[in-house]
Amino acid sequence: MEYNFHEIEKKWQKYWEDNKTFKTPDDLTNPKKCYILDMFPYPSGAGLHVGHPEGYTATDIYSRYKRMKGFNVLHPMGWDAFGLPAEQYAIQTGTHPSVTTNNNCDTFRRQIKELGLSYDWDREINTTDPKYFKWTQWIFLRLYNTWFDEGLQKGRPISELKVPDTIRQLGKNEIIKYIDSRRLAYYDNALVWWCPNCRIVCSNEEVLNDGTHEKCGNRVEKKNLKQWMLRIPLYAERLLTGFDKLEWPEGIKEMQRNWIGRSTGAEVDFSIDGLNEKLTVFTTRPDTLFGATYMVIAPEHQLTEVITTGDRKEDVEKYIKATLLKSDLDRTDLAKEKSGVFTGRYAVNPVNKKLIPIWVADYVLTGYGTGAIMAVPAHDTRDFEFAGKFSLPIACIQDPDVADTEQEKRILEGNECWTEDGKYINSSDPSTGIDINGLNKEAGIQKITKWLESRNLGKAKVNYKLRDWLFSRQRYWGEPFPVIHWEDGEITLLDEKELPLHLPVMEKYLPGETGESPLANADNWLNVTDNKGRKGRRETNTMPQWAGSCWYYLRFIDPKNDKMIFDPGQEKYWMPVDLYIGGAEHAVLHLLYSRFWHKVLYDLGIVSTDEPYQRLFNQGMILAFAYETESGMKIPADQVVEREGKHYHIENGSELRQIVAKMSKSLKNVVNPDDVTLKYGADSLRLYEMFMGPLDITKPWDDKGVKGVFGFLGRAFRFFSDPENIVRGEEDPEVLKGLHHVIKKVEGDIENLRFNTAISAMMIFLNLATKKGKVTGETAATFTKVLSPFAPHMAEELWHLQGNTKTLAYEQWPRYNEEFLKEDNFEYPVSFNGKMRFNILLPVSFTKEEVVNAVLADERAKKWLGSATPSNIIVVPNRIVNFVIKN
RNA sequence: GCCCGGAUGGUGGAAUGGUAGACACGCAGGACUUAAAAUCCUGUGACCAUAACGGUUGUGCGGGUUCAAGUCCCGCUCCGGGUACCA
Fold first, then answer.
1. Does domain A262-464 have CATH number 3.90.740.10?
2. How far is the CA of A180 from the C1' of B1 (A)?
3. Domain formed by A1-31+671-821, architecture
4. Protein-covered nucleotides on strand B (Cβ within 7 A)
5. Which residue has the higher pLDDT, A746 or A442?
6. pLDDT in tens, A495-534
7. Strand partners for A627
């Protein structure tokens, strides 16, 4: 029978849909459960590209396999549908973003269904649906009403926060201020990049070197905007320790650890000469205090103005202005040439009471530590560079552990920077009573930190790179904050019962010129009056796209519940997510934010697990071939012709190099899954996506490769659908061995997400079966089951042709029998000094001695051994024989 | 610069420290066909050699550990991703 994939695929997709084959079981008594999740997509107008089906196919195979293994499987799909493109389109055309979004979702849903993925479509969710974002807003209320108890390392309801009496005495305003300062969500000014042309806040990476916006080329400016922020750094420690139990790729854990950026050190207070202020610095090297010869504060530091003396004001102000104009990248670029100005003021070094000058420089950042540093040029490369440029003193306080005496001399004289370990010198002062001379780094840090703490001059301190999360956008198409700002300055949140707060319908979606969200123009929606006549305005910022994706896995558990965020019993059954697959581009942000929310919900008793995603896997990017000339000029794929495996320019005939690059319109190398499905069918697309290589690596799409798996499916179908090939009676032992081998191999490979080798094992079996020409009906049925997670349409069709009337989706996964896998003989590779020379077939039961004797009796061994006597003979049973000959 | 990942035939890739190149693409030859496509069969790392057998070499580069290294260790080169002076 010919392999008519179009007909087969249409037929079974309809069957699955009509019969709701993949509806999640309601019976929660089955102890075997598996929650398998894809990172849900943003439904762009461009439709699916071949990168999407990679992860989706992987989870689909895993889901189908787990069902056959008797698991209750939860495998849902939905849309992360808030986002800029729909809003931009609305600005241009006036079409409401929900219309665009729904159209895009329809396209995505159709395309995904055409791939035969076994989602439970009854659980589809959409982050832009008010029934969904009602609960996103609900979580925001929780964040706002939670504080972090550092002692218990746990989030707690704000009602449990004790306000100190000293604050209480200061009155209502101070109490509110205190409470607000402890909430996980707070409202504050934040300095952000603003593009006046696009009327949008830009991220650092969107701002180019020359200070222009990468999207429009216009100059951006720094703007202070009122923003919602989330105190994620409070959870830094929990986010770090949570990794321990998780089955995540080590590299991803490492990237998140680096992002959180824990560092230990000390905070040290410096008093300021002539002012009743102190300057606190964070340092990882309190041991180098004696080497601190100047200080630097960030231009944005709140004390900069106070510290600057009259005669220096002009210079400092000029410098601050210049800094504000630079993009962050610019600031770092100029870092090669460090810049800074003297404030005219001096600080007192607490260890020796020496006066050291205070400078302002943009290499010190406000966002990290305390925004001020003590500079130790002799032992910090940045400080060394800066001191060199501005002729500041360099005091070496550590005799370096270095063998090179010339280098040692340079370091001691302050002509070279030393950041490694060594023995302290010049590090004592009788007047303050501290002496660490002779100690090494570790001991020095300990001693001086203790000394600082005993004198109340500083304390040990852990610092994180992780910063507060800027959690608002000046956009229309996002979740509205359930927040009202009253005329008297009070901020209140809507009551739970008032949710969801809908987005108003508008005619114009353009943001305001001043950085205000388009919502500021929705007068009817915006202005509110309470029952006492007090006037207020709703929050006009909306939440970032992260909000919806931070918790969607929880809603899938009980997506239609309109009474609660989800049913706790069902949550307890399904959580945590057992397998989570998505692109590595979300390695840090999405996963970190999502873990943070989850931990807050856990602390509040809303979810039952501390971590959301037990096992994580990142699929690699799919690239495509592209072509370039000898000189490296890129040639669009439609201008390239292939002859005898080589590539030539269609016009001038010059030979081109095949390279691997990202798919892009300009290179004309974008692959659309619809084209592949049309030509080869969904099963072939699925199979090729998996056969290309390991799931986690970056790999190029090759249309020719699809032909390979298409050929395999065609051969398989023709062979197993032909009654002449299916016989009764005993199975051929070789076929039986092959069959049980493939069951075992595919099973192990699916568990380890190594689908490429599973497919090649199936190819090997098919090659064997076709060579034999005949298999039993039982073998055919078993192989059909093994193939079914990979090529489900074809497998259902074969299953049907084999006389079955029900779907095979819930058939039991075949069990392999080790007995059939046993070999009688093993073909030993025999090597001499590690070089393989020949093979010899011997019974597996042979002892080492028997093996050696059998090999020595072989003519070929005599040839390689010659007259020499082996000094050693290594026999690894059923693996290798190696003769060691010394010459 | 730093962090993470990678480098194996013409191509994608396979290989618990134990026969490097499974499986597939491509290519070459053959069968079928008036012909092509499709399908099927055979060969295919490179080099040397042959009537045939065979041999040498080979996993980015240089060292090392080991009876044995694509795999482990040290030092590099190049490529991809992330990040931007993190005190």
1. yes
2. 40
3. Orthogonal Bundle (1.10)
4. 3-6, 10-16, 18-20, 22-28, 38-41, 55-56, 67-69, 80-87
5. A746
6. 999 989 999 988 888 777 777 788 888 888 999 999 999 9
7. A635, A658
